[in-house]
Design brief:
Blueprint: H1 3-13, H2 19-31, H3 37-42, H4 48-58, H5 63-68, H6 71-79, H7 81-84, H8 86-111
C-alpha cells in the first residue's frame, strides 16, 4: 500500500491503538495490497476515552464491557453490581487498554 495512505490512516486512527501497536499496524499496512484499503476505511473503532466515560457512569452495571464487546464480563459485572464496586473501580484503570486491544483484534481480522 502507498506510504501516504498508510501514514494518513495511522494519523487519523492513532488514538484507538497503543504506540507499539501502531508500529506493527504500519508495517503490516505497508506490506498488504490496496484491496484492503476500502475495508480499512469502513471500519469503526471504539474510542477508549468514550469507554472510560461509560465506565465512570455505568461501570457497576457492566455497560462498559458490553460496549466493547465483552459480553461475558458485562454479564458478570451486572450480576455482581461490579463485584460490589471493586471490579468497577479496577475497570476504570483497565477499560482503555481493553478497548485498544479490541480495536487491535478487529484490525487483525482484516490485515492477517
Amino acid at each position: 500500500m502507498e506510504v501516504q495512505k498508510v501514514d494518513m490512516f495511522i494519523m487519523v486512527n492513532s488514538k484507538f491503538f497503543d504506540g507499539n501497536q501502531l508500529i506493527r499496524i504500519r508495517e503490516r499496512l505497508l506490506a498488504v495490497d490496496d484491496s484492503k484499503w476500502i475495508l480499512l476505511q469502513a471500519m469503526q473503532f471504539k474510542d477508549p476515552t468514550t469507554s472510560l466515560i461509560i465506565s465512570l457512569l455505568g461501570g457497576a452495571l457492566g455497560i462498559d464491557r458490553f460496549v466493547i464487546g465483552d459480553t461475558g464480563l458485562g454479564i458478570g459485572k451486572l450480576l455482581t453490581l461490579g463485584g460490589c464496586g471493586i471490579w468497577a473501580l479496577v475497570d476504570l484503570f483497565l477499560i482503555m487498554d481493553a478497548t485498544k486491544e479490541k480495536n487491535m483484534l478487529q484490525i487483525q481480522q482484516i490485515l492477517y
